[in-house]
Please model this.
Amino acid sequence: MFESVILYFKTNGLEYIGTIAGILGVWFSIKEKIITWPTFIICYTIYVYLAFKAGLLANMSLNVVFIILSAYGWWQWNQVGDKASSKETKAIEHTSKKLWIINVLFWIIGTAVIGYLLENYTQSFQPYFDAFATSVAFSAQWMLSKKYIGTWLCWLISDTVFINLWALQGYWVTVFLFFTFMVLAIYGWRQWHHILSQAE
Model:
């Protein structure tokens, strides 16, 4: 039995590390800490491999892009507008109606194009759901790098779809991760909303 436990953790060790890094990354982002970005880079690198194993090819590609966006976010958060301010990073901003419209159009086009490519040229699991969640998550990550408060709603939408995709594949640790992400997204929205209200 002991050997079975060791084998389980060898097989699922990366999933646990990715889960812990992902949760810490979201927590740090809520608290506006620069360490958010190197923590996310660890998480996304692991999930490139896990998504490939699960046949979630759009999600795999998304995590590759997320590694690049994390480097961009790291740089963006260091661009503090008020150099005399004691804040560690740039200020949180509202999400305009125009930006929401652009995001929704991006999700529709992204779902159609990515879903079509996955369905016809790969062995992707649930290609259009994978494509939709991937498109929304791409928006969420970009909005997080720019510190738009709407990032948290995008994460909730994307995570809701991904939690089902990972559950259908039997990745229960990752299901727990995405459930935690959803709880943190609600908390993150409330925290950022409070910070914005105070600033105004």
Remarks:
- The chain has seven helices and no strands.
- The chain has a mean pLDDT of 85.
